[in-house]
Amino acid sequence: MLITGASGFVGRPLAEMLLAGGSEVHALSTHHPDGLDESGVHWHHGDLLDPATPARVMADTQPERLVHLAWYTAHGRYWSSPANVEWVEASLRLLRAFAGAGGRRAVLTGSCAEYAWGGEEDLDELDSPLVPRTLYGVCKDGLRRVAGSFAEESGLELAWGRLFFLYGPHERPERLVPAVIRALLAGERVATSAGTQVRDFMHVDDVAGALLAVLQSDVVGALNIASGTGRSVAEMLDLIGALTGASELIDRGARPMSADEPPRIVATVKRLTQEVGFQPSVSLADGFAATIDWWARERA
Amino acid sequence: MLITGASGFVGRPLAEMLLAGGSEVHALSTHHPDGLDESGVHWHHGDLLDPATPARVMADTQPERLVHLAWYTAHGRYWSSPANVEWVEASLRLLRAFAGAGGRRAVLTGSCAEYAWGGEEDLDELDSPLVPRTLYGVCKDGLRRVAGSFAEESGLELAWGRLFFLYGPHERPERLVPAVIRALLAGERVATSAGTQVRDFMHVDDVAGALLAVLQSDVVGALNIASGTGRSVAEMLDLIGALTGASELIDRGARPMSADEPPRIVATVKRLTQEVGFQPSVSLADGFAATIDWWARERA
User: Fold this and answer.
1) Which of B49, B153, B154, B158 is the best mutation test for A, with the most CBs of A within 10 A?
2) How many CB atoms lie under 10 A from the CB of residue B259?
3) Helices (H), A130-278
4) CB atoms within 10 A of CB A33
5) Measured between CA atoms, how close is B145 to chain A, in angstroms?
6) Which helix (H) or strand (E) holds A252?
7) ipTM exceeds 0.90
8) Chain B nearest-CA residue for A80
9) Which positions 79-108 of B are in contact with A (Cβ < 8 Å)?
């Protein structure tokens, strides 16, 4: 099987799980040289934005299964960067090459940003309106529509995992959870919003586990990859404060809440739990404790 | 300005109108060698499916305005061909190159196949659901979503003209109107369905005129390029029969109506007539008479 973005936040644990399950794992990345690494991953150096890459990698690997995680993810800029459009093109080219090389089942990753935000209802694959507000969300939504129809015409199985809010080791350090953890570990004060916004957080190992379960199932179409449980950002800040023993460094409410910050972004998870049969196994307390340990080791 | 698909069914009259209006017209086509032709069009030989083409053509032409007509159009096959996906990629690449080269206003072309079909209501840009049934329709719909959001982020004006049913000179000979005309001119019998399905037909010169008007306006977003008048296929067959003097060769009802043939596909045209200010000028009788004359000359 082939995995793109294998050296990224989600790709790293997913590749480990695939190897542990006995899969032959071919991984495409711009960050690794060609060759077999000590863990057993067959790396293929390549940039998916280069139009020649997909056909070459498919010829080299002939995968039956594909998990496509690679995308533009530069913190802050990814919401509105034109690179999102390039990744729509690159993802479609990849999927065509995969189908052309005899691929059978693909898992692509979308985002909760495909849904309309701002309501109080949990976001559901069947019932919730798809009105993305950002270029990132529109590109994921547009890719899903085209890729899904192409897969149907081609006899390819395609599942589309919509990721919500992730945390865990190797997250980009500028993002909320790592930024708070790093500051507290460094003994620095952190100014946050009131934190009343409610989000659906899942540890990256559970995200990878869910994607693996989806890959191994025969479920097709869009499904939420999330915990199904909403937590306020304030609750998470409290947890991080308690676990680091540095609660007093958090100046909660010192920063204004953005006017367009949606009050609630939480998934329904019936498809994931009942159709795929996946249950997350990392509690928020354990997950944050492990993540704080990881950042503490990174600092050392 | 730059026009793609300039040697095609709609591109040909549009290029003529642009020249007549005094525009400097650069045309991209796989069917023409580079250079200025006798009509005044600057041709650029190039295939948009080649990833290198857009940047090269933009560097050569530096257009402020773009009309993108090129797409995969092979009769019968275009509904479900994977080439539709390639054209999504190619169109996004083109639009990025256009924006990157300082482009200001683009008109892209979609299709009535973006709408849900099967209802009795006229298809409206604001009110009608977008539930394309075919890969072709999904690809046009997906392209519109991504291109529209990219244009907003980039400060590019983008209008999206949804074409309905076209007829006129240079149409692909396998399609309904030319096929019937050619058979009748050849004295051959034609077996048709009962023809009760109602469609919105517009002469290709009016389609080109409407796109020119859209280009010259500042209207953005999706708008129907159509007559706003429904005609049954039976009515059109009668007209062609009368104009060729060969009505008796039409065996209407000899072929079954396809079970999934939508009863009515007709546009609302408020945006085109009121916001753009365009009125079609070719009546169905005049348009068919001229089209029959054109095919008669082609035969000679």
Assistant:
1) B153
2) 5
3) 135-154, 176-185, 204-216, 233-244, 270
4) 9
5) 6
6) strand A250-252
7) yes
8) B153
9) 80, 82, 84-86, 88-89, 92-93, 95-96, 99
Task: Give how far the C-alpha of residue B59 lies from the chain's centroid of Cα atoms, to the nearest Å.
Answer: 27
Interchain pair A96, B88: CB under 8 A: no
Name the CATH topology of A2-167+202-227+269-280.
Answer: Rossmann fold (3.40.50)
Using a CB–CB cutoff of 8 Å, tell me whether A283 touches chain B: no
Spatial distance between the Cα atoms of B16 and B106, rounded to a whole number of angstroms: 18
Domain boundaries B2-167+202-226, corresponding CATH code: 3.40.50.720
Question: Is the pLDDT reported for residue A76 higher than 90?
Answer: no
Residues with Cβ within 8 Å of A145's Cβ and at least 6 positions away in sequence, in order, are: B138, B141, B142, B145
Nearest CB among A80, A138, A148 relative to B146 is that of A138
Contact, A26 vs A38, CB < 8 A? no
The number of C-beta contacts closer than 8 angstroms across A and B is 75
Q: Which residues of A touch B89 (CB under 8 A)?
A: 88-89, 92-93
What distance in Å separates residue B120's CA from the closest CA in chain A? 24
Chain A positions in Cβ-Cβ contact with residue B85 (cut-off 8 Å): 92, 95-96, 146, 150
Query: Which pLDDT tens digit goes with each residue over B235-263?
Result: 999 999 999 999 999 999 999 998 889 99
Neighbours of B96 (CB within 10 A): 23
Is there a contact between A82 and B89 if contact means CB atoms under 8 Å apart? Answer: no
Distance, in Å, from the CA atom of B16 to the CA atom of B212, rounded to the nearest integer, reads 11
pTM of the model: 0.96
- Interface contact B72, partner A, CB < 8 A: no
Show Cβ contacts of residue B270 under 8 Å, excluding neighbours closer than 6 positions.
Answer: B124
Alpha carbon A161 to its chain's center:
9
Report d(CA A284, CA A292) in Å as an integer.
Answer: 12
| Domain residue ranges of chain B, discontinuous segments joined by + | 2-167+202-226
What DSSP line would sit under B117-150, residue for residue? -S-SSPB-TTTS-----SHHHHHHHHHHHHHHHH
CA distance B173 to chain A (A): 26
Three-point CA angle A54, A59, A64, nearest 5°:
85
Is A135 at the interface with chain B, CB within 8 A? yes
Q: For A164-195, write each residue's pLDDT tens digit.
A: 999 999 999 999 999 999 999 999 999 999 99
Share of chain B above pLDDT 90, in %: 96
